[in-house]
Amino acid sequence: MDFRFDIVTDYMPFFLKGMGITIGVSLAGVLIGLILGLFIALGKMSSNRWIRLPFNIYINIFRGTPLLVQLLIIHFGVVPLFMSPSNPLVSLVIGLSLNAAAYIAEIFRAGIQSIDRGQMEAARSLGMTRVQAMKLVILPQAVKRVIPPLGNEFIVLLKESSLGSVLAAPELMYWGRAAAGQYIRVWEPYITVALIYLVLTLSLTYLMNYVERRLNTDDQR
Amino acid sequence: MINVKNLKKSFGDNEVLKDISLHVSTQEVVVVIGPSGSGKSTFIRCLNMLEEVNGGQVLIDGKDLTDKKTNINEVRTDVGMVFQHFNLFPHKTILENITLAPMNVRGLKKAEAEEKARTLLAKVGLAEKAAAYPDSLSGGQKQRVAIARALAMEPKVMLFDEPTSALDPEMVGEVLEVMKQLAKDGMTMIVVTHEMGFAREVGDRVIFMDNGYIVEQNEPKALFDAPQHERTKSFLSKVL
């Protein structure tokens, strides 16, 4: 098998541009997903079952259906209601955020509920409100415990952003498919794209490990 | 100071407190004893609404905690609580554990709260531990910090829920010593404990609970030396 490096070099500017978009879209998805996820987690832990219900439904729908299906519905069904023409990058960010929010909500909920009940009781017995106790006592401890599963979720999200190629969002995978189509070649574009994804996820793993270590040494002197 | 009227509490079908009435005066030290499962921990947790009650009234300083209109957070600032498992905040230093509520609930300035915290730490004999984290303390030290943390809110009443039950035997003394001093200073206290020596020495009144009722209450000497009820006799014969 001859490996045509000229295809790789030809397309490198596009791959790099795509990589930038992949990073941007993933970052946006994670940030929005974190905010929505925290909100959903707190909603799902409400003592009122009618408040819990919509959050439960949300999580079940977004975890229970394929992201690809969600993306197609959002891009071709939902986003056109608000903007025309529909922008694939907007759709991709919306889809990734909403999907990630469901998983992140469950991560947050598990993290918060893993904190000993006595912590909440001690905080409340000192006169703190529920919100103060959450903010000052529970969440700071929960954050440490959710870092590893959140890191996992970020990696999953970064890889899943490749589904954006189906919407013709010009992220990394899109350019891989474009190169494959233009040269009618499989190995060069896809291996290159795979390697770039690998570099991204490994960097992320390294970063998360670093954050984890920092948080651990911070608290336990 | 504390007035409990016909208090009832169930967990599902399990009726834990059947009909408890109790009056505690200012500066009184009431010690609650009884076998496991008698409802004494549940009872003391009802006094600051850590457990929702199913019937009756709990009045603290004239405020009815069972009334929906009562601001429970405000009442809790006047009711300090010490737990069996300390429940210190592990992500905060000892000093921060003590200043957290005064600063955020009472609105104290940092310098003011820290000064008070250091005074309290000195009082419980842990002045040098201000910058340490709870993980590095022994059980007895943790419990003394927990007492200081509760005192920092300047409560009118202190509740102790089996404060020495999770401690190694040789650490029980140091915690009881702090509680004894507190009682001497005139703090109103309700103490759930298995430490009969403490009950006898420090208590103004001892309450024996069993099966969701107050079976018998009296001055420590009278209750320990001449219990009236069969149930009290058999319990005391086993623990004394």
UniProtKB/TrEMBL annotation, chain A:
One Pfam family of this chain: BPD_transp_1
SUPFAM superfamilies referenced in this protein's UniProt entry, alphabetically: MetI-like
PROSITE patterns: ABC_TM1 (PS50928)
Alphabetical UniProt keywords: Amino-acid transport, Cell membrane, Membrane, Transmembrane, Transmembrane helix, Transport
Membrane-spanning ranges: 20-43, 89-108, 190-211
Species: Domibacillus enclensis
Protein name, per record: Amino acid ABC transporter membrane protein, PAAT family
Keyword Cell inner membrane recorded: no
Presence of the UniProt keyword Transport in the record: yes
GO-annotated biological processes: amino acid transport
Membrane-topology annotation of the record: Multi-pass membrane protein
GO cellular component: ATP-binding cassette (ABC) transporter complex
Residue span, ABC transmembrane type-1 domain: 19-208
Location within or outside the cell: Cell membrane
Family per record: Belongs to the binding-protein-dependent transport system permease family. HisMQ subfamily.
Top-rank taxon: Bacteria
Lineage, uppermost ranks: Bacteria, Bacillati, Bacillota, Bacilli, Bacillales
GO molecular function: transmembrane transporter activity
Xref: Gene3D superfamilies: MetI-like
UniProtKB/TrEMBL annotation, chain B:
Residue ranges occupied by any ABC transporter domain in the UniProt entry: 2-236
SMART domains for this protein: AAA (SM00382)
Primary localization: membrane
Keyword Nuclease: no
GO cellular component: plasma membrane
Pfam families with a match to the protein in the record: ABC_tran
Entry keyword Methyltransferase: no
UniProt-recorded Gene Ontology molecular function terms: ABC-type amino acid transporter activity; ATP binding; ATP hydrolysis activity
Membrane topology: Peripheral membrane protein
Keywords assigned by UniProt, alphabetized: Amino-acid transport, ATP-binding, Cell membrane, Membrane, Nucleotide-binding, Transport
Annotated localization: Cell membrane
Similarity comment text for this entry: Belongs to the ABC transporter superfamily.
Protein name from the UniProt record: Amino acid ABC transporter ATP-binding protein, PAAT family
Phylogenetic lineage: Bacteria, Bacillati, Bacillota, Bacilli, Bacillales
